[in-house]
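Tokens in:
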């Protein structure tokens, strides 16, 4: 399985970007999502979506600003990022496989990732 991201770039604070991740190599029926890694920091969960029913999960830091969606026919997952903040600057990685857990108000989690993309850089400037 290969995951290929696109859509990163430079955007001003308050702007928007849409990231895409296309899976190839097999029919994907597992969760897919996004993580990000800022300079000098650990990679952290951003958002995930279940392939079967489209249920979505988010990190508290992006809930309400970011939207994850999928196109099953294209094996593609999207991350629409609005109201971008300087702190959103990071390399964004597409993730596939693994397990998603509903945090029930205490923060959702996505772990046991089976596949990673190579990442796409998002830079938010003032």
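Residues out:
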């Amino acid at each position: 399985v290969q995951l290929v991201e696109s859509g990163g770039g430079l955007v001003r604070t308050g702007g928007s970007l849409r990231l895409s991740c296309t899976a190839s190599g097999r029919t994907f029926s597992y969760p897919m999502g996004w993580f990000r890694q800022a300079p000098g920091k650990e990679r952290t969960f951003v958002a995930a979506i279940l392939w079967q029913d489209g249920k979505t999960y988010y990190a508290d830091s992006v809930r309400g600003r970011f939207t994850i969606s999928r196109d099953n026919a294209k094996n593609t997952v999207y991350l629409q990022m609005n109201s971008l903040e300087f702190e959103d600057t990071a390399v964004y990685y597409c993730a596939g496989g693994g397990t998603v857990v509903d945090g029930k108000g205490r923060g959702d989690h996505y772990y046991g990732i089976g596949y990673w993309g190579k990442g796409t850089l998002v830079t938010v400037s003032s």
